Amino acid sequence: MLKVGDKLPAGTLQEYVEVEGGGCALGPNDFDIGKSAAGKTIVVFGLPGAYTPTCSAKHVPSYVDKAAELKAAGVDEIWCVSVNDAFVMGAWGREQKTAGKVRMMADGSAEFAKATGLTLDLTARAMGLRSNRYSMLVVDGVVRSLNVEAPGKFEVSDAGTMLQQVRQLPA
Question: Has this prediction a pTM greater than 0.90?
Fold first, then answer.
């Protein structure tokens, strides 16, 4: 499993881009994880699935609500990563009002989740292999903090906990 001090794994995530521009076409676009994280301070939070109860009612809203505070504390970007396709992540982002606050990154085939070792097998609930619930602080592609939730819990991966960790970074 990924741990503090490790680099993010190589690979791509997809994001549904609403408006064409900046070299991005409208619709699903691939983003190289390493290139996207280089030289930036990023909060990445993973969750089991779009439109699921805790994810929709608590996890994403906590980051939308604290986005300005996280950015004021030095965070360049906030990524929500889930094992869903880019179309679903785009629609969910619109519903959650994440534009300009949280990038809704699709890990459609669970490749990122598998590469990090942060998987959650929800086959018994007819959801297949998913991402565990977690948050991490990444500086220039290197994991500086990692908060992995116990099964069924939402106690350490929220935006408030992450904001405390960001504020503890050396200047």
Answer: yes
